[in-house]
DNA sequence: TATCGTATAGTCGGATCCGACTAATGGAGG
DNA sequence: CCTCCATTAGTCGGATCCGACTATACGATA
């Protein structure tokens, strides 16, 4: 699979918006924020203007006009090209089809959970679970309001459903793991200082399985 | 919460390794890969040397010596400072405690699932589910082998358990959503070209709930 | 009517990231 | 004993990203 010319997801958002109508960058940012898509895309004005430039360079979008409203600063308006439209669809297709290995910060931290010691680790996990719980409730309520009211077809909020599902899974794992630490199911190996740093002595593995 | 001086997770990996013993960057990379931590950290030699430099600048690690083995290129060996050790623990603590909003590519793509149309969307989701299924089996087997053999305490593979759990959740959602599309539970609004781009006509919302 | 805050629209320089490259060594195979 | 390839160890320049900043306009308020 050949590497994509423009790989950041903000470019996908730009292409998606220009599918609907032509816009200037500032409007893209505010539209995305209005629609609550800032959970799916990292919207940073600096990056946005760079991304737009890069899309222009690759011929996926073009400048339509530069209008000046009153004495406000000029706005440069863009549209997709035909290439850009095809690229958009095939990119979405590929992103859905083939899972990409992401590197979430949480997983990085979990791989050093041992460094906290059992008590602090369990406590930290519980605190996380609390935050996640709040986020889950917010997400549920947001979905209920927006979709339930019939303002927007459910398909247009489907990524929020995915986000909620992911949150719930993480919440479940977090709580379960903290329980396992507290109940001793997940045991802490003992660390010892050696000449060359730290080593662990694994808790004796019992071989009493049938 | 004040912004961290060094924020990328590769730095966390470096600090973690130097907790055990002093190392030169190349050894860090190969150790991480050997231990299969390349799922949790994005290991790129270029970034690694930059990260190490940055850690030195902030006083979290220091150069111990530069050895030359035979006529091989010089290796520069590093250790953590006391500040670095404290920073490491408090960073892990923070990363566990407070969830950070990540922006996975999949979620970005899902938010434009509509662009594929129902058939192609369902098909793409199924293909993803297939890939995920394979990854899940690999992960399960790897865990069974490594932990089951007692070579390594379970705590040291805990992030793989988390990864597996996340994969399973994503797999479940992917399959469920593809089912919903096929069964019509998740309906596609009809798109219409208007003067200014595309608009959708929402499928009639039935108000026949009790 | 002077001023304060907010919305509009975008620029810029430095930090970070990453892939592609260099260069030497040790060992396997013919 | 010559060649080829994998391993060891790291450099470098360009691409990307991002936060902090500028500058104008509009509306509310004192």
Automatic annotation (TrEMBL), chains A, B:
Positions of the Transcription regulator PadR N-terminal domain: 14-88
UniProt xrefs under InterPro entries: Metal_resp_DNA-bind_regulator, Tscrpt_reg_PadR_N, WH-like_DNA-bd_sf, WH_DNA-bd_sf
SUPFAM superfamilies: Winged helix' DNA-binding domain
Protein's name in the database: PadR family transcriptional regulator
């Amino acid at each position: 699979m050949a590497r994509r010319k423009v790989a950041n997801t903000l470019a996908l958002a730009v292409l998606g918006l220009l599918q609907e109508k032509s816009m200037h960058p500032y409007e893209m940012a505010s539209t995305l924020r209005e629609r609550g898509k800032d959970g799916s895309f990292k919207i940073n004005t600096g990056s946005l203007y760079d991304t737009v430039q890069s899309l222009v360079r690759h011929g996926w979008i073009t400048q339509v006009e530069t209008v000046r409203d009153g004495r406000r600063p000029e706005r440069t308006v863009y549209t997709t090209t035909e290439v850009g439209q095809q690229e958009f669809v095939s990119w979405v297709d590929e992103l859905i089809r083939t899972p990409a290995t992401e590197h979430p910060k949480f997983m990085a931290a979990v791989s050093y959970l041992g460094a906290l010691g059992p008590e602090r680790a369990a406590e930290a996990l519980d605190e996380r679970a609390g935050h996640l719980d709040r986020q889950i409730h917010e997400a549920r309520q947001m979905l209920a309001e927006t979709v339930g009211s019939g303002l927007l077809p459910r398909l247009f909020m489907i990524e929020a459903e995915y986000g909620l599902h992911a949150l719930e899974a993480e919440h479940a794992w977090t709580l379960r793991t903290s329980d396992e630490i507290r109940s001793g199911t997940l045991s802490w190996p003992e660390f010892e200082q050696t000449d060359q740093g730290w080593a662990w002595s694994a808790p004796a593995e019992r071989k009493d399985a049938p």
